[in-house]
Write a structure and sequence with these properties.
Layout: E1 2-3, E2 24-29, H1 33-42, E3 49-55, H2 58-65, E4 72-75, H3 84-94, E5 99-104, H4 112-120, E6 124-127, H5 137-150, E7 188-193, H6 197-207, E8 216-220, H7 227-238, E9 242-244, E10 256-258, E11 264-270, E12 273-279, H8 291-302, E13 306-310, H9 319-327, E14 331-335, H10 345-351, E15 357-359, H11 361-372
Parallel strand pairs: 2-3, 2-4, 4-5, 5-6, 7-8, 7-13, 8-10, 9-10, 13-14, 14-15
Antiparallel strand pairs: 1-3, 11-12
Helix pairs in contact: 2-3, 4-6, 6-7, 6-11, 8-9
């Protein structure tokens, strides 16, 4: 283990003393000394970052996190002893709210390990390049990912003995106002999410009662190759049918449909039933798939009997659609800042005064169950 302050540990990218900005503290966890060294060098000279430590095993990383505040843990998957996926829940618990970026040769697009990492709580994943290819495109992606998840609002318990240079939790902007909660039948539940969404969805679905039988639509920002694995993962978590939506897929009580990576979910009536129409046209937010078209269609078809849920994610996707749902009398629920990896999408909805409830994913599920008159899972 190489702790911060060791003579052999680089103290990289310190913020200028005249700036109020604090560096993002990074812990590198990889069994390869070469990988740890190269990843550290990619951050050299950047005032946004500080390498707080480096560990060759997951157990050493967990020990280090017990007494140090870290903003981001860069974690490999394939390591001797306890692998990264096995250790991920312990690392999240020990880190008191740090984000985890998986950088591994196992993190290919569409790989089951990637989807599992995101479901377990990783904020993002990157495919580790082969030796000699860390510069260039990977370098840009690595830095961009660290900046994106490192600047998210953080809520975490203090760590005894943590360095005074540790980044403090950010205070989210105040919510304009909450709308009155709705009552009555739920005919369709639509959920939108992005960065950190798989973990939030997992928490939400685990609390949702099997007695809740309204059809469910899910839009998660993921590339097309991920979607079959994503749907399979949700099916196992929720213990209810789940499939990638196709044009003409009917909405069935108790079943979940996931937006495909190459199109948005829209709805239409056909022969007395509601079916999916896949829309490949660019959305205003440029997200593919986008939450807005899904919410707009739920407003059109189900009106006040629709419920929209906005979970963690960067940007404003879902806000325009939430406006349409509210106009139609539907209810909008948003994840809170404390449990979001990025409080962009839910924060946008909440600050626009569109949300009736702002809570953790588990509590949002309990609210849905309460409105539906069923007991949530414990």
């Amino acid at each position: 283990m190489v702790p911060a302050g060791s003579r052999t540990s680089p103290r990289l990218g310190r913020a200028d003393s005249s700036s109020n900005a604090r560096p993002i503290r990074v812990l590198l966890v990889d069994d390869s000394l070469v990988a740890r060294t190269v990843l550290a060098r990619l951050l050299e000279g950047r005032p946004e970052f500080e390498i707080a430590g480096a560990a060759p095993t997951a157990d050493q990383a967990i020990f280090f996190l017990a007494s140090n505040n870290i903003d981001i843990v860069v974690l490999d998957v394939e390591m001797p002893g306890k692998d990264g996926l096995t250790a991920l829940p312990e690392i999240l618990e020990a880190s008191h709210g740090a984000r985890v970026l998986i950088v591994s040769s196992a993190a290919e697009i569409g790989a089951s390990a990637t989807v599992r990492a995101l479901t377990l709580g990783a904020a993002d994943t990157l495919l580790k390049p082969t030796a000699g290819h860390f510069a260039g495109e990977f370098s840009h992606k690595f830095v961009d990912a660290l900046l994106r998840i490192g600047h998210a609002p953080m809520e975490r318990a203090p760590v005894v003995g943590a360095p005074k240079t540790a980044r403090q939790p950010a205070t989210p902007p105040p919510i304009v106002a909450l709308r009155p909660s709705k009552t009555g039948k739920i005919s369709c539940l639509a959920i939108g999410a992005s960065t950190g969404g798989l973990h939030a969805l997992s928490a939400f679905l685990r609390r949702l009662s099997p007695d809740f039988t309204a059809p469910m639509l899910i839009t998660q920002h993921l590339p097309p190759p991920f979607m079959p694995y994503f749907a399979a993962q949700l099916r196992d978590i929720a213990r209810r049918p789940c499939a990638v939506a196709a044009d003409g897929s009917p909405l069935v009580p108790g079943e979940m449909l996931v937006a495909p990576g190459e199109g948005h979910i829209r709805l239409a009536r056909s022969g007395g039933r509601v079916v999916v129409r896949i829309d490949p046209a660019p959305a205003p937010t440029r997200c593919m798939p986008s939450v807005d078209p899904m919410f707009e269609s739920v407003a059109d078809i189900f009106g006040a009997e629709g419920v929209g849920v906005v979970l963690t994610g960067m940007g404003r996707d879902g806000t325009l659609g939430a406006q349409e749902m509210v106009r139609a009398g539907a209810e909008i629920l948003a994840q809170d800042s404390a449990t979001s990896v990025v409080w962009g999408m839910p924060g946008s909805v909440a600050q626009a005064g569109l949300a009736s409830v702002v809570m953790s994913p588990e509590d949002l599920a309990r609210h849905v169950c309460s409105r539906a008159g069923v007991r949530p899972c414990s």
